[in-house]
Amino acid sequence: MNNLQYQLGRSFIYSILIGFALLYLAPLYVMLITSLKDVEEIRSGNLIALPESFNFSAWAKAWSSACTGSDCQGLAPYFWNSMRIVIPAVLMSTVIGACNGYVLAQWQFKGSNFLFGALLFGCFIPFQVILLPMAKLLAVLGLANTVTGLVAVHVVYGITFTTLFFRNYYIAIPSELVRAARLDGAGFFTIFWRIFLPMSTPIFVVTVIWQFTQIWNDFLFGVVYSGPGTQPITVALNNLVNTSIGGKQYNVDMAAAIIAALPTLVVYIVAGKYFVRGLTAGAVKG
Amino acid sequence: MGAINIQNLVKSYADTEVLKGINLAINDGEFLILVGPSGCGKSTLMNCIAGLEEVTSGNLIIDEDNVTDLNPKDRDIAMVFQSYALYPTMTVAKNISFGLEMRKYPKDSIEHTIQEVAKLLQIEHLLQRKPSQLSGGQRQRVAMGRALARSPRVFLFDEPLSNLDAKLRVEMRTEIKKLHKRLNTTIVYVTHDQVEAMTLADRIAVMKDGYVQQFGTPYEIYNDPANRFVADFMGSPAMNFVECVVIDDKLIIESDGKSVQLNVPDGQALIKAGIDTVILGIRPEMITEPKPHGNSGYITEIPFTIDVTEPTGPDTLAFGTWNNQEVQARLSPEAGAKAAQSNQLLVQIDTSKAVLFDPHTGKRIRT
Questions:
Q1: Alpha carbons within 13 A on the beta-carbon side of B46
Q2: Residue numbers in A near B87 (CB within 8 A)
Q3: B73 interaction partners in chain A (CB closer than 8 Å)
Q4: Are residues B265 and B351 in the same domain?
Q5: pLDDT tens, residue order, chain A (286 aa)
Q6: Contact B331, B324 (CB under 8 A)
Q7: Which CATH entry fits the domain spanning A76-285: 1.10.3720.10, 1.10.730.10, 2.60.40.1180, 1.20.1730.10?
Q8: Among A14, A151, B25, B81, which is disulfide-ready with A176 (CB 3.0 to 4.6 Å)?
């Protein structure tokens, strides 16, 4: 009797979970099959029906020849723009965050808690608030409309988050470890390099995923601080969808959207299992 | 090489003084124990010796060198931490050799030292393991190995045994003592466990409230305590404290409706001090069943009503009251068993080692 009840309960829970999973996956499914249909079939057919034949021409077009405004080179150049922005910005903000976190957690100085509080405050500053002053600053520095400028903005904005992650991870490590290493003759950087970095893999993964997703998906900074040749893929996607020559090409739009989302998906799939593990490890002990 | 001279050392955090002028002279090769209740400043003092805390004022001299303002790494000191503080991502061998590597020892001499230390501590089979794969006792050994590898002038031990279970603690205690015998290097050892302090130390510094209350050999600390705090803190079971009325140079004890006068070694001081009550400090082992004794003049017999007995094996502790204050006696198991049945026993009090304290200040009264 008990066993039957248990199984009933389980199947109830699983059916709800599966139902919600399908609900969440439905848009992706629609995007995917729509991108593989031709325009004719989309217009006449059923939204959720499988395509009659798999047709990858929309993908090719989205990648290399679709028009984003007056420029018809597809998403490819903007994809590489995004890479040129994201990779240095992620690496720099992560490394700086690791150093900051190490100092704030293990080498506390007078006012270090205040500094940490002030840095945390940076997490709550909305993008819109700094939009105009940052534009002015970038212009003064000669970085307006450049990839370098966008990297700088993302690094500065990211430091608050990366510092928070690393500080909370390192605060859980007993300070006796630093003391032992100091007595052993190791200095500030040696301790960081030889003792703290080797045990930081989970938090590095968390930070990289977080920063990669944030910066790759950013639209506002991308649209404001980029020039014609330096737009990131999110801006290009917007332009592509808003440019229509002849009828709306939903298949190309869908393929372009998936292309734009692909790198973050890949990062999650490759490193996702560390993400939850690292986040909770830092949070629970911190 | 490793004589430590601590001169007037003061350490304060903001407004609170944690160490209020510590003076200690530790001889080369001596095993010094810093003992005291938590918050007494013993760990702070150790961190000051290590250089992990800056001192506010005073001097710290090792051999001939004034190391007060030196970096920890330049003091030639090694420390064993309470949590062991092993480097989690390094193997045992790497943990041991890290300090040598930092000091740029040649490779083959490092290799040699690792083997030597591992052999001494019997951890040769663990060298390739990570700390997470070790038991508590093994981690303890590795932590000691890391300190030993550098053969420093001074070893510091910060409550190294407090994370081990009772049996292992006793084993490691003996081992540390053997190690000290063998190496003959100065050791400063912090503990709050007075048994550890008594068994290991050449000399003990009992600390409380940022002061050294007494600095002496275990024998002196146990038999000739400087004040009531030291007498109370050292010794298990703890010393009995009984407030007594003074008549001339004698103390009055009332037990079971009978009153006796006790002779005490410091009796003359009572007359000089001219006080009417005093705290008698007497250790439980000095209150026993009547035994054959010479005539020292310090043996008194008195009936004792027993509330509770606690057999410990080698002897039995019996609790009763004198002058309406609780007193512990230490009886033989046979006398204890008899006493448990009848609740009544004639005991002898040996006051030859009794000490007297001022009831208000807790200071010793002595001739």
A1: 29
A2: 177, 180-181, 194-195
A3: 182-186
A4: yes
A5: 678 889 999 999 999 999 999 999 999 999 999 999 888 888 887 888 888 888 888 899 889 888 887 788 888 999 999 999 999 999 999 999 999 999 999 988 888 889 999 988 888 888 888 899 999 999 999 998 899 999 999 999 999 999 999 999 999 888 889 999 999 999 999 999 999 998 898 889 889 989 999 999 999 999 999 888 889 999 999 988 888 777 788 888 999 999 999 999 888 888 877 766 655 544 333 3
A6: no
A7: 1.10.3720.10
A8: B81
A199 with B79: Cβ contact below 8 A: no
Any idea what the CATH number is for the domain that residue B155 is in? 3.40.50.300
The parent domain of residue B147 ranges over 4-233
Question: Does residue A111 belong to the interface with chain B, where contact is any CB pair within 8 Å?
Answer: no
Interface confidence, given as ipTM, is 0.81
Please tell me the distance from the alpha carbon of residue A258 to that of residue A241, in angstroms, as a whole number: 13
CB B179 within 8 A of CB B212: no
Alpha-carbon distance of B352 to B279, in angstroms, equals 16
Picking from B78, B82, B102, the nearest residue to A186 by CB comes out as B102
The beta-carbon neighbor of B99 closest among A176, A179, A185 is A185
Nearest CA among A186, A212, A258, A219 for reference residue A36 = A258
Q: Which residues of B touch A172 (CB under 8 A)?
A: none
Tokens of B189: 């050892």
Optimal mutation site among B102, B130, B142, B158, interface A, most CBs of chain A within 10 A: B102
